[in-house]
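Chapter review: from sequence to fold.
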Amino acid sequence: MNNRLLTLASVSLLSLNTAIADVDVPIAAAQQSFFNNLQQYCGKAFLGKIKTDTPKSDGFSEKLVMHVRYCDENQIQIPFHVGDDSSRTWIITKTHAGLMLKHDHRHKDGSEDTLTMYGGLTEDEGFAQVQSFPADSYTKQLFVKQGIPQSNDNTWQFFLYPERFSYRMIRLAREFQVDFDLSQPITAPKAPWGYED
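The token string follows.
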């Protein structure tokens, strides 16, 4: 898949998100409970800390902040700030096939990174506290194109408990997890790169 097709896929995804924003999309009960429970934190930001990083990766030693910045009936956007790096936004969208997770990666000028809009779709109902997103076809093609085919086996997970939200990525020989303390909201950061306050 060439760059133009990848860009078109990203644009199509964003267009789909816009198109369904005003229509409540029905999903499985556990997924809806998870979505509703996460929405209650909309507008709030929380500090995080690395729980697992095996093998250890670079770039996550600075202050970690998640900000549940935007919510509507069908989408939640959560920027993940790492120090002064505001390039990452997790986007959870309700679709007729289940919940979809995408990672929107931007440069400081707001332009898309070459590695962006990757993620996956839930394969089962999951739980009100846990949702899993195995890499989808678009993501696997993107990872191959970027020379990281080992990431094709990625599964992303969100855990949501009364005082903890966790983002986890797992694959063979690789695990990364960051936990956020929901009991202590902090001042919300500025908009992530590519978005506006």
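Two observations follow directly from the output. The longest helix spans residues 3-20. The two ends are 34 Å apart (CA to CA).
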